């Protein structure tokens, strides 16, 4: 039981770290900014 909780927590922090890195790479721009990913659609 504890091992499963540990795996879940480690996976949660792993994906959270990836999301935070992506936010910092692309910046916290709003929809009107030039580097917004959906601007060309």
UniProtKB/TrEMBL annotation:
<keyword id="KW-1133">Transmembrane helix</keyword>
<dbReference type="Pfam" id="PF12459">
    <property type="entry name" value="DltX"/>
</dbReference>
<keyword id="KW-0472">Membrane</keyword>
<feature type="transmembrane region" description="Helical">
    <location>
        <begin position="12"/>
        <end position="28"/>
    </location>
</feature>
<dbReference type="InterPro" id="IPR021008">
    <property type="entry name" value="DltX"/>
</dbReference>
<protein>
    <submittedName>
        <fullName>Teichoic acid D-Ala incorporation-associated protein DltX</fullName>
    </submittedName>
</protein>
<keyword id="KW-0812">Transmembrane</keyword>
């Amino acid at each position: 039981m504890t091992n499963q909780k540990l795996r879940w927590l480690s996976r949660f922090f792993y994906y959270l770290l990836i999301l935070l890195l992506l936010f910092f790479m692309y910046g916290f721009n709003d929809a009107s900014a030039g580097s917004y990913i959906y601007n060309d659609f």
